[in-house]
Amino acid sequence: MKRFLAVSVALLFFMYCQSEFPQSEYPQSESPQQESQSLPCEAGFITVEPVDFYFHYQSYFSRLALRSSAARIWYSFHPADQDCEEKPLFIFFNGGPCGATSSGLWSFNTSKMTLDTSLENGGDEFIPNPVSWTRLGNLLHVDSRQAGFSYNLMNSPQDWEERFKEFNAQNFNIYIDGADFIRVLLKFLSDHPEIQKNPVIITGESYGGIRSNVMLHILLNYKDYANGKEIYQDYDLVDKIQAHYDTVFPEYTNQTVPPEVITTQFSHQILIQPAVSYSNQHLVTGEILEQEGSIIYQIAEEEGVEFIPSWQRPSSDPLSDPMNNISDFMHNVAERDIYNYVKPEDWFWDFFYNAATLLRTTENLSIVTGVDVTSIASLYASARVNAYRIYNESSYDAENTVNQETNKVVSFEELLFRTMARKEAKLSAVEPGDMSEVFGLLQPWDRYFISLNYDANSAFHRNIALHRGYDVNFYAQICGSMFLKNVAYVNTFITDASYDIVVYSKAIPGSLALHTDILESSIHDIEPQGGEKRGGRIILKYLPDAFPDISGLNTRTIRFPLYATSGHAVSITQPAELFSDVSDWLADTGLGDIQ
Amino acid sequence: MRSSKEKRISKSSLILFVYLGIALATSLNPPELFPKETAEKKSAPSRETGKSIEKKKNGLKQKRFQIELCGGFSTLNLSDYNLLADYDFQTQNFFYDVYYDYLRDNGQISSWSKEQDGKYKKIKDVIPFGFRFKIYLNNSIAFSVGFKYLSRNHTNDLDYQYVITENNGTQYIDNKEFSPYALSVRGHAEMAGIHFEKKIKDSIGIEAYFMGGPLFVECVYMADWLYELWYIDDIYTLLMYDNDSMLEESGTGTGFVLDFGGRINIALKHNLGLFFEGGYAYQVAKKISGSGRETRDNSTTSWEGEWGIIEENIQTPWGNLELQFPTNYWEGWSKDLKIRDFKLDLSGFQMRIGVSYKF
User: Fold this and answer.
1) Does residue A394 have a pLDDT over 90?
2) Tens of pLDDT, residue by residue, chain B (359 residues)
3) Rg over CA atoms, chain A
4) How many Cβ atoms are within 10 Å of B246's Cβ, its own excluded?
5) Do A409 and B313 touch (CB under 8 A)?
6) Is the ipTM, as predicted for this complex, more than 0.85?
7) Cys-Cys with B232: which of A348, B63, B171, B209 at CB 3.0–4.6 Å?
């Protein structure tokens, strides 16, 4: 009887959801038709125009002035199930950097449709999501520059040496990345006055934690990004933020809006296995995992292999770095998935690979977006003659990638992404699905979809800004400082997934404690409170005058629930628990209720 | 390029200079002296008196006017202006040599090397040229009006190259070529002065002089450079980044000159003379202002502004650098960083050689 009821409910829910996406009534994208009471689903591209910005060390003549390239940024919008005009807007993004949100959070248990994560790789079709976050609010999923469906534009894309120059600091650094997302978010809000003043909940996974740090720090301290105070100076962005605030906070027109007021809109961040103070996380994770009895030693014992700690290796050996050593052990010795160590190698990437394959089918993409994607003009080959996605076609050649892997000493991050690069390579020659048939054949340097753009990801690690000494990588200590300042104003939720080694969340409290110029202590409290199913908090005690511009800052608490059977992608491994905790936490912090 | 304001100033100073000359000529050679001589000539047209013979014998003494042309060498004390070259040298050193040392010492790169051709040259001397018109009151005292022109232009090509080798063998090459890197100053002064002369032999005299007047100056800083970053790995050598930039800042202003010293006069034939002069000139102009132009990535910004001295404290992970330097670009810099006014100081010791002609 119970089984019958469950099947019936599931069937009814499926029919309900399908009824929202009738094939003949897909709304138009790229020029959304507004409805007064109910917002339609949307998908398409928001164009980010070239932007002049610069990095500096308080020195005019030594500043590095750069101009970003135009980009068409892919987004998908789903309105809240009910009262969408009253509900907050979640903006979702995955990490990488340059990892696709579309084959990440969008495909797995946040949006209306999802792959079935109870099946290996998520199965072969998108099904209604029983824990769709549309019950909590409006959803905006965005692919970062050159990831997923997003693509850049340039003159002469056929010249591969010119394309090589495009994969540089003007397009790929933590600040322009965060600024891209602010531009897209503000443009989307200005195009949707019904929800322009609604609370915004920034939801990022993995590197998305750094992106959230940057976005919130810019939004809260926006004037400092045009008055010379911050290392990144972007006048156009600050003008756009001011214009947005003039609309949302008219009482502050022509004044600097204080952070306390700004956070009435940008009030919450949800970070899934995030990098927040990544260099410290790297350090603390290495220390914990190389201790005798750690999970790494347990894995070695289970697999019957030996783990040689980094400190037993000569300093000239790249594996003398603890995280390089752990990564090498997981991949090459234990052959376990570093994103979910109870699973075999590549278990995590296979979900993304599968989603990336399925999303290249027009029918699937229409189902997931709720939009007839054939109406999206910028998807067509004819609209993207100046588009490019990669600089070197051979870098997406499987054989070449393997050769590079054997010949080069690479960093921890590069090693992680090589696996996905190999998988992308398999898709490079002829992309799966019907997009070439529907939208036209693309140039060799263009792609309809890239799950993780290896060329773009590499540009975060190798670029002119880093070469000239500007600390704009996500290893920069300032990322942790930005996070701690943001937390002073913004309600923060971080997942604590037990099986993740890439972002070993047990190291997060300790890594924050290393910011001794800001914090007196960072304590991990594991006790559940008030009937919580999954306890966990990080209690931050700030030093007096940690931030001279914030008075009375004493302690802040970050919700840090434990996901005991989760790997890196918590929305894949424990989606219902994540949804439940987020909805409870939003209710506790003044936002939302489950419908 | 000179501004119209400066042209007007130069024109008016020239008028002033000519007026002063005429005034001196008329006031120091009273008209009554000449009628007496003319009367003598009229009264004895056919024979020479003893007095007139004496005048011919001592022709030098009897000539009241003298023109002089001179040129030479002058040391300069351009401390404010030369901060530009100091700044360029120190920022290169800090952002390359010190930075790469830091990376190497912290194990972030394997090694680095450097090659450099050319220097950030400072201006330490100047070549002055002058013209003077002297009117003798008597054998010992003369007044003069004069014109002095100073100019120095250091234009050279400068390039440097750094090769950085990462721990995995990947190399980067920083290449920066300035063409040109130029500092130049010019100035001219219109002066009036007094001279005290004493004969120590028939054809040799010594003289002390003291002159003063308005000073008009111009300075131009120009740096046009191409920066390239090359990436080299096992497979590729690729231009990763390039940037063609230009910065030009110029200024004009006024000040005054006090020029004093001594000299030796040597009489030659036919009213010609030779002199060697040595002394010190205080030549300072303040309130320098002018135009500026910057080009980066095919985008050009122009401005007008008064020069001032800025102090900046560059703080980086590899150290701090405190610098002072002049600029007139207040859209680029915050005026809060200005610590004092800029002065173009052309003062210095000077040695000159010249020729004179009495009539």
Assistant:
1) no
2) 344 444 444 454 444 444 444 444 444 443 333 333 444 444 444 444 444 444 444 444 567 899 999 999 999 888 899 999 999 999 999 999 999 999 999 888 999 999 999 989 899 998 889 999 999 998 889 999 999 999 999 888 899 999 999 888 889 999 999 999 999 999 999 999 999 999 888 889 999 999 999 999 999 999 999 999 999 987 788 899 998 999 999 999 999 999 999 999 998 887 899 999 999 999 999 889 999 998 876 778 899 999 999 888 888 889 999 999 999 888 766 667 788 999 999 999 999 999 999 88
3) 23
4) 14
5) no
6) no
7) B171
CB-CB contact of A191 with A32 (8 Å): yes
Would A342 be classed as within a structural domain? no
Beta bridge partners of B277: B263, B352
Across the interface, whether the CB atoms of B312 and A469 are under 8 A apart is answered no
For residue B249, give how far its alpha carbon lies from the nearest alpha carbon of chain A (Å): 13
Measured distance CA(B134)–CA(B64) in Å, rounded: 8
Q: How many domains does chain A have?
A: 1
| CB-based contact A168 B240, cutoff 8 Å | yes
CA distance A218 to A182: 9
C-alpha–C-alpha distance, residues A250 and A441, integer Å: 48
Which residue from B241, B232, B236 is spatially nearest to A395, judged by alpha carbons? B236
Cβ proximity of A43 and A378 under 8 Å: no
* Domain spans, chain B: 4-29+64-358
Residue B289 corresponds to which tokens in the numbers above? 């202002």
The DSSP 8-state label assigned to residue A384 in this structure reads -
Does residue A411 sit within a domain? no
CA distance A4 to B145: 116
In degrees, rounded to 5, the angle at the alpha carbon of residue B167 between the alpha carbons of residues B164 and B173 is 15
Contact criterion met (CB below 8 Å) for A108 and A114: yes
Q: State the Cα–Cα distance between residues B46 and A164, nearest whole angstrom.
A: 99
Q: What is the pLDDT of residue A464?
A: 94
Q: Which residues of A fall below an 8 Å CB-CB distance to B?
A: 52, 57-62, 65, 67, 161, 164-165, 168, 228, 318, 407-410, 462, 464, 467-469, 471
Question: Beta B109-117 vs A562-563: how paired, if at all?
Answer: unpaired
Q: Which residues of B make CB contacts under 8 Å with A? A: 87, 91, 95, 99, 167-169, 172, 174, 229, 231, 233-234, 238-242, 247, 296-297, 299, 312-318, 327, 329, 332-334
Nearest to A108 by CA among A528, A451, A530: A451
Residue A252 class from Cβ within 10 Å (0-12 exposed, 13-18 middle, 19+ buried)?
middle
CATH number assigned to the domain comprising residue A577: 3.40.50.1820
Domain for residue A156, yes or no? yes
Could you give the 3-state DSSP secondary structure of residue A391? coil
Name which of B241, B296, B298, B334 to mutate to probe chain A: the one with the most chain A Cβ atoms within 10 A of its Cβ: B241
Q: Which of A295, A279, A287, A280 is nearest to A311 (CA)?
A: A287
Considering the domain delimited by B4-29+64-358, tell me its CATH architecture.
Answer: Beta Barrel (2.40)
